[in-house]
Amino acid sequence: MAFIVWDEMYATGVASLDEQHKHLISLLNRMIEAIAQKKGKEELSYVIEEMGNYATTHFQAEETLMEKAGYSELEEHRLFHDAFIAKVDDFRLKYDACDEGLTAEVTIFLTNWLNEHLSIVNQEYIPFLKKAGKI
């Protein structure tokens, strides 16, 4: 059962980026489902690892497009990406230390990331991609 569903407010117009965003939503849904089934800790390692994979693949693709489009706020946008990567590294350390509150923390972080980064921050570069003919 999907708790968070894809919404066009998350769309960038770049199919590959949107598919990667959909994967992030699926990770959040996986965490919520696991928590509901009282299996959050069991899914946590997978979700954290996938968040790291997402960061590596997605951020590189997104930043490359922004660079090609001449997006003037690229460096500022990279700071958001760097913060996500740092948070994933923090989650890995907390997981290794058996932090009891980590399941909720990861779920809240992903929820906030979707609501703020995908629907607000990412929408700022879309006009640049369109103007540059990247969309």
TrEMBL record:
- Please list the residue ranges annotated as the Hemerythrin-like domain: 12-129
Q: Gene3D superfamilies given for it?
A: Hemerythrin-like (1.20.120.50)
User: What UniProt keywords are attached to this protein's entry?
Assistant: Iron, Metal-binding
What GO molecular function annotations does the UniProt record carry, in alphabetical order? Answer: metal ion binding
Family membership noted in the UniProt record = Belongs to the hemerythrin family.
Protein name according to UniProt = Hemerythrin family protein
